[in-house]
Request: fold
Amino acid sequence: MVRVDGWLVDYAGRVLLHDHGDGIYRLPGGTPDGADTDVIATLRRHVLADARVTIAEAVHLGYEATGEPAQPKALISMVGRIGEILPCRDDAPGHRHARRLLTSLDAAPALLGRRAFGAQQAVAAALLAESRWDLPACSPLAFTTYAD
Reply:
């Protein structure tokens, strides 16, 4: 595995993105290390450290194979329910965390630069969030806002 990313949905049906301030948005996530017991542990660790957000629950959405056939790797996608959005903090002087953007699942694929594939993932994430946690992921009220 190369990386695990999360479509993390809040109570209003918005998904969490990292805004790096240069027009680049990303789903929160990261790469596993030896202390992680599974992909959910990897996602929880990175999201808490990088976005200061807790994940109440998460489930597997799918994967995308990457790399060479001799050394296959995968980008794992998860869907999660946001537990709590904690205050940001700077870990070191001069270090700035990416801003936390909460936006609708409809708007996220274009912001991520993943138009077709991202739209398919966003629809699947919305369906899971609604059926599993009763979150209003397709709500027109899922307005875009910063959590910072």
